[in-house]
Amino acid sequence: MKKKSLKLSNLYLLLVFFLLYAPILYLIFYSFNEGGTMNEFTGFTWEHYGAVFEDTRLIRIALDTLRIALLSSLFATTIGTLGAIGIYFVRKYKAQQALLSMNNILLVSPDVIIGASFLILFTVVGFRLGFLSVLLSHIAFSIPIVVLMVLPKLQEMNDAMITAARDLGANSWQVLTKIILPSITPGILAGFFMAFTYSLDDFAVTFFVTGNGFSTLSVEIYSRARQGVSLEINALSTLLFLVALFLVIGYYFIQRNQQSKKLLTKNQARVVSTR
Amino acid sequence: MSQAIIEFKEVTKKYGEETVLKNINFSIEKGLFYTLLGPSGCGKSTILNIIAGFTDTTQGEVKLNQKSAENLPPNKRKINTVFQDYALFPHMNVFENVAFGLKIKKMDKNKVKEKVKEALRMVQLENYETREIVEMSGGQRQRVAIARALINEPDVLLLDEPLSALDLKLRTDMQYELRELQQRLGITFIYVTHDQEEALAMSDEIFVMKAGEIVQSGTPVDIYDEPINRYVADFIGESNILKGQMVEDYRVAFGGNVFECVDGGMKPEEVVDVAIRPEDLVLVPENKGCINVKIDTQLFRGVHYEIIAYDAEGNEWMVHSTHKAEVGKQVALQFESYDMHIMRIGETEKEFDERIEAYTEEGNR
Asked: Which of A233, B50, B60, B337 is 20 to 30 Å from B303 by CA-CA measure?
């Protein structure tokens, strides 16, 4: 009886995952199609991948996207970490909650609204749309993510450590660099990864604030897909999917590393207590 | 008399409406072991925080080495702290933890190595340098915390209930070690605890605290033998405390009898508390002692039997005896006049000292 129900639930899970991954697999499958369309598989070819690597415009855009992602996540991580530390040390509980809520509102508000408001802001101020405008908006929407990843690590931290460091003669800067930052490094890394992936695949905000002559991959794929189906896009999407996969695997290993460290700590604590 | 290195003058501390410390006065001399003793929430940790510089005062003056400590940040004070939960840095190993204070001062690397080695030897943790904090047991972490605090060569070491997380055996061992360490280094220790046994065992001087005030201060023997009121008598050790009435100086009535005692200076007919330590009571056959009692219960405590008995008036008596008693039996309690300690109700420490001085002078005449 139990075995049967287990099988059913497994089957259900398989179905769900099949439905989720089917479009992507379909897309990847046809990226190797010799024929120019997705109607019929006529034969295997690498030709679309070749086309991607020959398309200098596309490669430039891919590099731009990476540049934006890397820069924006670096800036956002720095600003967001300092922001989280700031929020953590706000003494009044109400003020702290208010600040945190304002952070969360940015996180849940629709990208379209954020994008549109950035567009309005940039045009009102007279800022030229392009690389900088995209970078600035990416930094802006990544900061709340970083804050949210870093804050729990701060709350996990033992405050007495800060008192102890000051007691031993450390000034505020030394407390920050030698005690607080090392304690919250996992949170900072997680925040960086999240900000990086968010920036990499952002479409809505970027779509609003890119000007002429500058584009990111998501916007480029969108506009090319509208012009007509080319299997080059399939090839490009496959490559992007692989990048995302690697990112997820990388993040998984970082987390597993930390968890095994924690587990180690727990085990040792147990050994100590049974001694 | 050596100079006071810490002085509190009429120090008051309020958190909002709540007064945590009320008019605290004391001075701390170099090289002694002080204990702030009191139940949790009595303000003893607040005093520690004020000394360390983590908390400011609402009123009053704090002097360190005869200079006002106002606006002197913690890192400018020659005072270090051992925290209750040790507050070790988990991302550093033992060496880095202990060396932290010196590295902050940018001391030469070889010198740091030497000093850390010495500090670890002092707390009997030689060759533990490369261990991670998570690999250490509670007692070892405690030692690391002490070494880390001592490496800065402070004038005063503050210890905030440092032994409370350890088991009983380890706690007793550490009491000896702390006392020994303090005497060897000659550094002033200020120790905060709610454990009266710890306080009695280690201190040169104890400050007994209650609800933000210092109730009594003195050597462990003074405080144990001459508690000024019911609170101190009850908090320090076990006590039988009975209501009594002074007949005249050196004569007190309680339990239906009048006894010779060694206390005086009260008004005639004054109602007082009479305290007798359970270990001062001796069980003797009925009608052969001072008060007849009936034995109610008996507990074996290892070192002694703890016997609870009731007298004819219904007062409860606790007796510590190495001899077994028989439950339900009528016996008598024997005690001497100097076993009785008489306390005036509501007397402050100052009045207590003045009275003791006055009547001993009178007695000497």
From this structure: B337
**CATH assignment at residue B69:** 3.40.50.300
Residue A167 contacts B where some CB pair is shorter than 8 Å:
yes
The verdict on B161 and B24 lying in the same domain is: yes
For chain B, give the percent of residues with pLDDT over 70.
Answer: 98
Task: Classify residue B237: in a domain, yes or no.
Answer: no
State the Rg of chain B over Cα. Answer: 24
**Is residue B118 situated within a structural domain?**
yes
Distance from CA of A221 to the nearest CA of B (A): 45
Interacting residues of B161 by C-beta distance below 8 A, sequence separation 6+: B84, B192, B193, B194
Look at chain A and count its residues. Answer: 275
Q: Which of residues 17-56 of B touch A (CB under 8 A)?
A: 52, 54
Q: Per the CB < 8 Å rule, is A164 touching B83?
A: yes
Query: Could you write out the three-class secondary structure of B188-212?
Result: EEEEEECCHHHHHHHCCEEEEEECC
Question: Residue B36 is part of which domain span?
Answer: 4-225
Per-residue pLDDT reduced to its tens digit, A101-118: 988 888 888 889 999 999
CA distance B82 to chain A (A): 8
Same domain? B302 vs B176: no
pLDDT of A274: 40
Residue A142 has pLDDT above 90, yes or no: yes
Q: Domain for residue B48, yes or no?
A: yes
Whether residue A147 is predicted with pLDDT greater than 90 in this model: the reply is: yes
Fold of A56-258: MetI-like fold (1.10.3720)
Residues B134/B144, Cβ–Cβ less than 8 Å: no
- Report the alpha-carbon angle B71-B74-B76, nearest 5: 80
Strand partners, B156: B79, B188
CA A130 to chain centre: 22
Of B188, B207, B225, the one marking the end of a domain is B225
Among B50, B77, B105, B135, pick the best mutation site for testing chain A contact (most A Cβ within 10 A): B135
Q: Where are the domains of chain A?
A: 56-258
Measure CB to CB from residue B87 to each of A161, A264, A269 and give the nearest one: A161
- Closest-CA distance, B87 to chain A, in angstroms, reads 5
Task: Look at residue B326 and tell me if it is in a domain.
Answer: yes
CA–CA gap between residue A26 and residue A34 (Å, rounded): 15
- The residue whose two tokens read 């007695």 is B363
Read off the pLDDT of each residue in B92-107 and give the average, rounded to a whole number: 88
